[in-house]
Amino acid sequence: MIRKTAVLTRVGLLPAIAALCVTSSLAVRAENPAATQAGTPTGAQTNGAPAATPAPTTAAAPIKVEDPSTKSATAAAPQPPASPVATTTTAATENSPKADDPSKTTSPTVSTPAAGATAAASPAASTTEPAKPGEPPKATAALPDASGTTPDSAPAQVLPPADPIVAGIRQRLSELGKKASEDDAAALAAYYGELTGTAIWASTSGLTEKGKAVVAEIGRADNWGLPASAFDVPSAGASNLTPEAAADAELQVALAVLKYARYARGGRVNPGSISQLMDQRPTLVPPRTVLSDIATAEKPDAYLVSLHPKHPQFEALRQVLLKLRGGEVKEEVPVVDPALAVKLPMGRIIRPGSSDEQVALLRQRLKVTADDPANENVYDEKLQEAVREFQRGNGLRPDGVVGNGTRQVLNGGPAPPPPATNDSKIERILINMERWRWVPADMGEFYVWDNVPEFLTRIVKGGNVVHTDEIIVGQPSWPTPIFSADMKTVVFRPSWGVPAGIKAKELAPLLRKSSGAGFFGIFGGGYSAQAVLDAYDLKAYAGGRQIDPNSVDWASVNIHNYSFQQPPGPKNVLGDVKFMFPNSHDVYMHDTPERNLFGKAYRALSHGCMRVHEPRRFAEVLLAEDKGWSAAKVQSMFSSGGEVGLDKHIPVHITYFTARVDDDGKLHTYGDFYGLDGRTAAALTGKSIRFEQPSYPGDDVVATSDDGPIGQQQYTRRKKKQSQYGGPTSLSDAISGLFSP
Hints:
It is a single chain. The chain is an alpha+beta fold and 741 residues long. It folds into four domains: 1-12 and 25-160, no CATH class; 165-268 and 284-305, no CATH class; 422-494 and 571-694, L,D-transpeptidase catalytic domain-like; 502-566, no CATH class. The chain has 23 helices and 19 strands. β10 (539-542) and β11 form a beta hairpin.
């Protein structure tokens, strides 16, 4: 009887199977066990034993999606009403319905592998008695099989899919072509191949309420930093649709949902395709998960919104974006500040601690009153701090010295870049919102955040910034990579091994020219290889043994066969401490002996690592959190040295945000000295965008506070011109800064 049922069922299913057109490119991936389970007899027995467990599936090889209509057809077969006991004896064919077949429910549901597997394993679903030798198995409750009571009875009724729209979708899946990615196509095939209820988003009456909500939310994509024009959705007002048109609308909405989910989670462009610096991998929601989750969501539009980043800065940028797009922006009526009317005549330099009649004017301009009216013309410490803050905010060197360059800016000169237009601000915001999608969704309860364009590091705990410090980042020719890693150790009084890149590009040329004149002829004589290494307290090693550098012909050897170490000490380029978070880029955070560089406004000066302005305090905050150490305990490590392993790894996120919103809702923008804003804009929009860059004063040789701010191109030209005037006065000066990571 079992054999008859199987034959009749298969014969009845042939038309339905022939109607299903699913190509091999839409094969279900191995992670979709439901599709694999579909072809496995759920109640079959082996050697007469009860089928207490489901047959094992083979998840390694992808298979095509089986037409769920076969399940529906068998499920629809009439059952004798007089039967008091459910049995799977005669329903133990490969097309029998599961115990929890979704086709028996009235609302649309999603078939899951778990449901099928549970039903198959249920003891109640298998009540067949063990067969005796030579006899077929018996059921505990005799029921007629699906084909009827006798072979001469009418064949089993095989119904078409319960929803013709779903059937239409299945037929269209093979026609997707370039409309869907391979992953999306496979997810759609698996989802709609198992759907036994009605369509989710469309009906012959038009879009369902859920469909309208989803289409409306996708239409608001611009409010979330995504282009609404990128999503192809049907009209929400469409009605009186044919089943074919409804199937098209359903598939159109489903494709738009998958694309929106991918874009919301950062899959619009691959960060690595913009630049190799962008070592970030957004975490995308699997398409099959998206389809299942949004179908069962009470509010599918809210589900789409939930896919966007939860980071406070993302939302802050979004709010500024909404304000800028809120229609015509009203020009603010300028408030006349009497202080701006104060002008300082050009003249001699005014230094802190000096007395000058212009100091009184300077006080009026910066609104700093003297503690004693008798000292109105004395340049005191309070006024100096106000001057430095003004200089820092206007791209001037914050040294407190007032020369004609600072006077020009105080008098309303052209130092600051022109205000960005709304369009420029919007483009910058969109770029940075996209970058937030590439940051890990969970940055950690306690983490370090290094923002390269801002030259700042922050320690964040529970969403609140508990420590902020200045950092020096990689110069454009040695940029700091953008990635996330876990800090695992803090090393006090570290030694330093010269990295391969610095060894090949900077140390090797010096060693090759170390005998006789050459490069060092500018000093009036030659330098030995030992002198080159002594200038930075470096030791040379070969095969792990220290060697005499003068014994090597550096012009003929491969420098990568040698290592160079710098022991702890005042010349060590890592300073007194380094903070290690292992990564493929070999960068980390550390102290530096070049403290003067933190006085610069432009601090893209390192070889990729990040130098910390106040490393002692930075270490105190980290180790107080991780180990509960006191400040005194941490300070003792700076004397004794040693490596401290962290009990809990601390996430370190290195980012490239050129726009940030402060606590007052004000938008701040920063220099794009790696040129990544333009590249990102081109990747997102297909067009190149140039942004106004802030001015930087360069370094001591290039610009002083009296010169006023200069741009980066002008800085480069001046530095080249300066190099023509003469060389450094000592070997130490010649290589100073070359080896600093």
